[in-house]
Amino acid sequence: MPRDTLPMSSQAHLATRAQRFAELERVQLDVLVIGGGITGAGLALDLVARGLRTALVERDDWASATSSASSRLIHGGLRYLERLEIGLVRDSCLERGLLLRNAAGLVWPETFVFPVHRGGPTGRLKLAAGLLAYTLVSVPRVLGLPRLLGARSVAQRIPGVRAPDLVGGGAYLDGATLDARLTLSVALSALGRGALALSRVEALNVENGRGGARVQLCDRLSGREFELTPRAVVLAGGPFTDALRARAGLGGGWIRATRGSHILVARERLPTDGAVIFPSPVDGRIMFLIPWPRGTVIGTTDLDAASDAPVHTTRAEVQYLLDSANGLVPGAALGEADVLSSWAGLRPLLAAENSPSARSREERVAHEGSVYTIAGGKLTAFRSMAERLGARVAADLGRGDAARHSPTRVLRLRGAFDAPVARPDWSRLDASGHAPRARDAIVPAWQRRYAALVPAVQEFCGRVEQGRSPLDAETLLGEVDWAVRHEDCLGARDFFLRRTDLGHGPRAEVEAARERVLERLASALTWSSARLAEERADLARALAAGHLWRTEGARAPLLEVALKPL
Q: Which candidate, 34, 37, 45, 101, places its Cα nearest to that of 74?
């Protein structure tokens, strides 16, 4: 099967919302997908690639919930092998290989180091066996052979690692991504192939019938309500699946969400050569240190959480994450003042009575009348999840390509390179141990943000007024215009937290950029003064969410269920 490079110009403007609305109300849809996270976006792309007339709606922005709050990893899940979830790990490893090819640059290979300490839960022999099994389940899409490391090599890759009882470790390849950017690329790829994708559109009610569905929708920007009658509806609400099923008159009890929180510290405070996976010295849970151009992500927690409750990192979680990192790298001596930002998201895990970290990442699918529901799963496996359900929907409707193997197996996503890219070099530290200078940070940041579209964005920023004026060390003012014209950016939160990482930077830089971005968006999107005021307040709430933990009083220690890591 030939590679599909998507007949979409990298600089073509998106159809306006008005144009997409007009088309949405004109055509007879085969399938309406409700939910614009990675699962819904992947389904829309799969269905339209099969030849079905497909629409995708999202009540907020693309990837506005779980799909922009992950650990930003594309991985098989080394720790799931110990629970003998072989099928889940193999599916994820195979999908990781496809994403490194079809989303090259948007997804990139990353080296993971697993340090081993004397007396710890994982010895060298157990680690070696685990890495071998992890490699074997990846056949035929093996990224490379893992290897065992000596203590000196581990110490070089993790400066300041706890040394007295360090006996060595292992290294292997997995993948990483900007989760929100990947989801956006999938949604825009579906749009480029003919799907009708609209954010800020909420499904108010779904009338389920045997011959089709009747869906009441509301454009949340204008307040206008309208109705669609697709032949089938797919509910892909992530952690909000039960609430979405209630609107379709269907039963709940699908989801028992858990909250995962992450913190970001400056790169020079916790430098690593590649990512680190390690058992937390606090409770033995598997943790990650994940490198970014100017920062290191520490994650993650795993706590029961209500899907309808506000989602933000707590002070107890911040302390847990800091204690875990300091336990591995005592010399870092990280404190609350080192935390640049935090983010938290809800994992849409299937309901079960076991501990949060032990719940399966498998998906669940149901078909009831003209309504399909899909929930659970992992970011890495979104394409294969969509492939299985897409084939089923096409077969049930008797339309389009119902083949088991989807065209998405060879479909290059919007913005991807033609071939896989090399892993980034995170070891570029000067003699004093500092990260790359601020003016150099834009290069790796843009490579991860735009991949093959970097030249187009550079050219665009050079054409628009003050386009090359910096907002911070990684972001230019012209990117605001690019996000509006080419990336369906409709609000300030969209730009600060999902089109870029600007909102997770140092607070002084975020504050300095806030009004400039708001004014630029107001001009590009022709906001009224009232709308500008609403956006200003909404952005303030969104940015404050990453720092709400700072206002909490002393909390009891975070309770976690310890797992025996691989």
A: 101
Digit-coded pLDDT (tens) for 47-85 = 999 999 999 999 999 999 999 999 999 999 998 888 888
Residue 226 to residues 26, 215, 220, 222, 316, Cα–Cα distance (Å): 12, 8, 11, 12, 45
- The pLDDT tens digits of the residues spanning 474-519 come to 999 999 999 999 999 999 999 999 999 999 999 999 999 999 999 9
Quick one: angle between helices 454-463 and 442-450, nearest 10? 110
State the Cα–Cα distance between residues 192 and 206, nearest whole angstrom. Answer: 27
Per-residue pLDDT of 119-135, as tens digits, reads 999 999 999 999 999 99
CA distance 59 to 51: 25
Fold of 29-110+174-255+348-425: FAD/NAD(P)-binding domain (3.50.50)
DSSP character at residue 410? G
Q: What is the DSSP string of 61-93?
A: STT-SGGGSS--EE---GGGGGGT-HHHHHHHH
Separation of alpha carbons 221 and 490, rounded Å: 9
Indicate the range of 145-159, 433-447, 550-564 predicted with least confidence: 550-564
User: Which are the contacts of 515, defined by CB distance < 8 A and separation ≥ 6?
Assistant: none
**294-308 in b/e burial notation, b at 16+ Cβ within 10 A?**
bbbbbbbbbbebebe
With bands split at pLDDT 50, 70 and 90, how would you rate the model's confidence at 354? Answer: low
Q: Tell me which residue has tokens 């204690």.
A: 323
180, containing H or E segment: helix 179-192
Quote the Cα angle for 404-406-407, to 5°: 150
- Provide the 3-class DSSP secondary structure of residue 558: coil
What pLDDT score does 427 carry? 59
pTM for the full model?
A: 0.94
Residue 67 phi/psi, 5-degree rounding, is -75, 0
DSSP bridge partners of 208: 213
| pLDDT score of 235 more than 50 | yes
The ranges of the chain annotated as CATH 3.50.50.60 are 29-110+174-255+348-425
Classify each residue of 111-143 as buried b or exposed e, where b means 16 or more C-beta atoms within 10 Å of its C-beta. Answer: bbbbbbbeebebeeeebeebbebbbebbeeeeb
Instruction: Tell me: pLDDT of 386 over 70.
Output: yes
Contact between 456 and 479 (Cβ < 8 Å): no
- Give the whole-angstrom CA distance, residue 495 versus residue 516: 12
